[in-house]
Design goal:
Elements (H helix, E strand, L loop, with lengths): L2 H10 L1 E2 L18 E2 L30 E7 L6 E7 L3 E3 L13 E6 L6 E4 L1 E3 L2 E2 L8 E3 L2 E7 L7 E8 L4 E2 L3 E4 L13 E4 L6 H12 L4 E4 L19 H4 L11 H14 L4 E3 L16 H6 L15 E5 L2 E5 L11 H12 L7 E5 L16 H13 L4 E4 L5 E4 L2 E2 L2 E2 L5 E5 L56 E5 L3 E7 L4 E8 L6 E2 L1 E6 L13
Parallel strand pairs: 2-26, 15-16, 16-17, 19-20, 20-21, 21-25
Antiparallel strand pairs: 1-29, 3-4, 4-11, 5-10, 6-7, 6-12, 8-11, 9-10, 12-13, 12-14, 15-27, 18-19, 22-25, 22-26, 23-24, 27-28, 28-30
This protein binds 2-acetamido-2-deoxy-beta-D-glucopyranose (8 copies) and fe (ii) ion.
The site of one 2-acetamido-2-deoxy-beta-D-glucopyranose has 4 residues, from loops.
Length: 533
């Protein structure tokens, strides 16, 4: 790497240093909108990792565990361990494995002591079936989910998973539990990524993320991109462009196994919390959808009272996270909304001052791609999130980075959330580059809704500089910073009022941030709704 190049990077980027001197704070805003010009030297095509790459090949035998991952339950004392045993099948005459054949056992203990505790969970298989001539069916290996309970806060544990009766136990893995929930207690670093896929750019994102040592990872939808493939393993960077005549949107489910294998190194020791994106829809026979998503990941759904894999909540130290589903009913009479009302009402801001919400398609994005696509969801849910004083919203879907000024109902508002889009994880689809406010790039309103979200709500603005129009004619005031580049973000909540957010581009050195801001809460100026503690 040339030193000139390094020097240039240091000049054009922000070093995240102790004390964060010079890093702006949201209370000094709203800020004038910034668009970072496209870095043309990093425009290379994102290429999928092929099935021949050792990163994605099966390295275990028989019923030995693979694709091991962790996710959190609702509080520090409980964690989910997930893994897969046995081989998937794809083709004709596939025969689902019997999930009862292999036990779901985790042996664990505190680091430095003996592995003397055991938890038993459940197992399942899922199939992806296509009742169409020439298409191949898939059935998964046995997927295991085990919930560990009674864990101490902020403590390093060691564990092995598998079936001891088959001599099929994994190596020892390690994880640290979240700190106890309280206003002075936070995980050090939470990584936020979206729209990862499984390309060589994804590995760059994940490498950068791993070097930042997150305690927890949020994946805001669109994981494997298995739906860029036909069932015969042929793929394209644009499914609808290349395969416009298929009887159903096909997928190649082995890509999920490849994804699970590649991610294992990181997520067998760092918990990952996933919420569904449109690439997880994966329609199949009998109108089933989201089956791989709902089967492969463990979610604290029962624990958080939702009973749905599509929306749930959990605490990580003094932060309450709400994960919302954009591709199921979000309207006021639906189950999700009612659950959200109950969940928000039960949050005690004395214990978890920070309230963070995530879902896949952004409400506030200024890119042409997916512009105002989730407007019906915004109209339905924004008031509720605002009323309860949500501090930060993370989204993906748009393949670029953007951070908003505090905004509510398209109006700058010091008590509105900061919206951050990080759909730039490195998947093989096009990066979002075009802005809706550039001449000639405002989409025709009728083309903007997403079929899977339903409705049309994106009417022309009635006030502000864009009144009477569908798009602004310059970067909108609610957009503080935008850049089209691959990367990931890190949230470091410092105390009740200050959180440092930084965004890290794949083309930069690890300790450099392309964007950094202190997100500052003002509980006195913007009092959150009081709830029964
Ligand atoms: C994606 O990775 C390739 C190398 O595999 C690189 O040349 C290219 O610039 C990357 N693309 C972006 C947008 O970072
Ligand atoms: C796949 O499963 C569907 C639904 O059960 C069935 O109709 C179809 O014939 C199967 N295809 C193959 C290739 O086995
Ligand atoms: C897969 O199917 C598509 C569409 O029928 C075809 O164009 C392609 O050649 C097939 N690929 C393989 C590897 O059979
Ligand atoms: C699947 O959905 C389609 C269109 O919504 C409907 O026509 C069809 O009857 C459904 N099939 C099943 C098996 O429910
Ligand atoms: C809201 O969602 C429910 C459940 O999905 C549905 O029955 C109802 O028609 C929807 N209402 C509106 C106004 O869209
Ligand atoms: C949001 O703004 C629109 C347009 O200015 C207005 O019609 C609507 O009443 C506002 N909604 C709320 C809840 O303030
Ligand atoms: C909405 O705004 C667009 C331009 O952004 C304009 O072409 C269109 O006529 C407007 N529609 C209405 C109903 O005012
Ligand atoms: C919270 O953290 C920020 C940033 O580290 C610091 O400037 C501020 O003084 C802290 N506030 C309190 C009340 O500790
Ligand atoms: Fe998406």
């Amino acid at each position: 790497m040339g030193s000139i190049w390094v020097t240039l990077l240091f000049i054009s980027s922000i070093m995240v240093v102790d004390g964060g001197v010079g890093i702006p704070r949201t209370i000094d805003g709203p800020f004038k909108p910034v668009t970072v010009p496209l870095d043309k030297s990093f425009r290379g095509h994102a290429v999928d990792i092929p099935d021949t790459d050792p990163l994605v090949q099966r390295t275990v035998q028989g019923f030995q565990p693979e694709q091991i991952s962790l996710s959190l339950s609702t509080s520090h004392d409980s964690v989910w361990v997930s893994w897969i045993t046995g081989e998937f099948q794809i083709g004709e005459n596939i025969e689902p494995l019997d999930p009862e054949k292999v036990a779901s056992i985790v042996k664990y203990g505190r680091f430095g002591r003996s592995i003397n505790r055991q938890a038993v969970g459940y197992s399942l298989v899922y199939s992806q079936l296509y009742p169409f001539e020439g298409l191949q069916n898939y059935t998964s290996g046995i997927i295991h989910h085990v919930r560990l309970t009674g864990l101490r806060a902020n403590t390093l544990y060691q564990y092995q998973c598998g079936d001891p009766s088959l001599s099929a136990m994994s190596d020892i893995h390690y994880f640290r539990t979240m700190p106890v929930s309280g206003p002075k207690s936070y995980p050090s670093r939470i990584a936020v990524v979206g729209d990862l896929g499984l390309t060589y750019n994804t590995t760059s994102t994940v490498d950068h993320m791993a070097i930042n040592h997150p305690d927890l990872i949020l994946l805001v939808g669109d994981a494997s991109y298995a739906n860029m493939y036909l069932t015969n393993g042929t793929s394209s960077d644009c499914y609808s462009c290349s395969f416009s005549n298929t009887p159903i949107h096909e997928t190649y489910q082995p890509r999920w196994d490849y994804w699970g294998r590649y991610m294992e190194t990181l997520i067998s020791s760092v918990p990952i919390m996933v919420v569904e994106g449109n690439h997880e829809i994966e329609a199949q026979a009998e109108n089933k959808t989201f089956v791989a998503y709902s089967s492969r990941f463990a979610f604290p759904s029962e624990e958080s009272g939702s009973s749905s894999t599509f929306y749930y909540s959990f605490n990580a130290g003094g932060i309450h996270f709400i994960m919302l589903g954009a591709y199921i009913s979000y309207n006021k009479s639906g189950d999700q909304y009612k659950w959200l009302e109950r969940d928000l009402a039960s949050v005690d801001r004395e214990v978890t001052p920070w309230l963070v919400a995530t879902w896949h398609p952004p409400w506030y994005s200024t890119y042409k791609s997916h512009y105002r696509e989730a407007e019906c969801m915004r109209v339905e849910m924004e008031d509720l999130l605002y009323t309860y004083g949500v501090d930060i919203v993370f989204n993906g879907h748009v393949h670029a980075y953007e951070r908003s000024n505090r905004v509510y109902n398209y109006t700058l508002d010091p008590c509105g959330p900061v919206y951050i889009t990080v759909g730039d994880g490195g998947n093989r689809e096009k990066m979002a580059i075009t802005h809706a406010d550039e001449p000639g790039n405002c989409p025709e309103p009728s083309t903007t809704p997403d079929d899977f979200m339903g409705g049309f709500c994106a009417f022309n603005f009635t006030s502000g500089p864009a009144a009477g129009k569908f798009c602004w004619d310059q970067q909108p005031d609610y957009s503080a910073f935008r850049e089209s580049s691959f990367g990931h973000g890190i949230l470091e909540v410092k105390n009740e009022t200050h959180a440092l957010w930084s965004w890290h581009r794949n083309q930069d050195m690890y300790d450099i941030a392309g964007d950094a801001i202190y997100i500052v809460r003002q509980p006195d100026k913007c009092p959150p709704v009081k709830t029964e503690g």
